[in-house]
């Protein structure tokens, strides 16, 4: 891959995705988890028998309230990803990538891939958009995203083929 430099010289470079970034991106696209929720995930939160991931909702825990878990069913892609990763103890974090350099690594990967400005949070929107386009009821999308009210979820209503019928 030729990487353009500010000095005008383009250097050949082997592109290598930052360790753990690929797995985190696949996880986020397939669960709709927030960045902090994914980085806090432990192996004890994965239930392969039931086929679900327990996500502790960090957003609701603000202002002295207790964190509430939500459960995301595993699709085939997510199950294969998690089964293919080296497992640790129940208390061990799944994603070893740190919050400090995550954004820089993600932006660099997007640049090398030739895609425009994309934020990590956009992967959450991608998850919700795909559900809406597949005809998933908006209230179920709300539950999976961990929104407290339907108002936040309504931004995906225009993507739902049944949006006018539900209205």
Tell me what the structure shows.
- This protein has 167 residues and is of the alpha+beta class.
- It has helices at 21-31, 35-39, 76-84, 99-113, 122-133, 138-145, 150-153, 163-166; strands at residues 2-4, 10-12, 46-47, 52-57, 68-73.
- It has a three-stranded antiparallel β-sheet, with no helix packed on it.
- The mean pLDDT is 84.
Element order, helices and strands?
Answer: EEHHEEEHHHHHH
Largest sheet: 3 strands, antiparallel
| Distance N to C terminus | 49 Å
Strand order of the largest sheet: 3-4-5
Poorly predicted runs are: none
Strand content: 5-15%
Report the radius of gyration as a whole number of Å. Answer: 18 Å
The overall strand count is 5
C-alpha geometry:
globular
Mean pLDDT comes to 84
Counted by DSSP, the helix tally is 8
Class of secondary structure makeup: alpha+beta
Fraction of helical residues: 40-55%
